[in-house]
Automatic annotation (TrEMBL):
InterPro entries: SINL_plant, Znf_RING/FYVE/PHD, Znf_SIAH
Domain spans labelled SIAH-type: 1-51
SUPFAM superfamilies: TRAF domain-like
Origin species: Hibiscus syriacus
Name assigned to this protein: Detected protein of confused Function
Length: 170
């Protein structure tokens, strides 16, 4: 395997190895882009090529996120270290299923996060997911996530928008 891994792995053990290898190739989350590289290379690539496709934020400040009810995902980028995150949204019968995951080798250190959503009509009503960040080197339709937030349809019935606050407690 490339990008710094010195382990000699037979093809049959490749999948097993990729579960813990810190050098597993990470893919660019932009749909039309085929870039693949180490996590460092991906962060640099994203910064050079697609910075505007992501919502920037900083770890120790709460992040306000607005997502259209039908918007499938949003890419988030931490501005000091270039970490990339995907907030994904699936429309289900009861409402929207929201997951958050980080792009990186599976064994990246997992940090905790807190995702809150408010009912647009009844503002006293709030839902919160407190969870651990899971990382995945290739973002697919159903990203790896520890738990999810199910936002009832009533939360977005007027505005057709979901409003979140994301926090990374230090
Ligand atoms: Zn390896
Ligand atoms: Zn790219």
């Amino acid at each position: 395997m490339a990008y710094g891994c010195r382990e000699a792995v037979s093809y049959s053990k490749k999948q097993e190895h990729e579960k813990w290898c810190p050098f597993v190739p990470c893919s660019c989350p932009i749909a039309y882009c085929n870039f693949e590289g180490s996590l460092e290379q991906l962060r640099r690539h994203f910064n050079d090529k697609h910075k505007k496709s992501a919502k920037g934020f900083i770890y120790n400040r709460p992040v306000s996120i607005t997502l259209g009810v039908d918007e499938k995902f949003l890419i988030l980028r931490e501005e000091t270290d270039g970490s990339l995150f995907i907030l994904s949204n699936k429309v289900e019968t009861l409402g929207n299923v929201i997951t958050l995951s980080q792009i990186g080798p599976f064994m990246e250190i997992r940090s905790s996060y807190e995702l809150t959503v408010k009912d647009e009509v009844d503002r006293r009503c709030t839902l919160r997911l407190q969870s651990l960040m899971r990382s995945t080197p290739k973002w697919v339709d159903s990203p790896a996530s520890v738990g999810f937030l199910l936002v009832p349809s009533q939360f977005s019935c007027n505005s057709r928008q979901l409003k979140f606050i994301l926090r990374f407690p230090s």
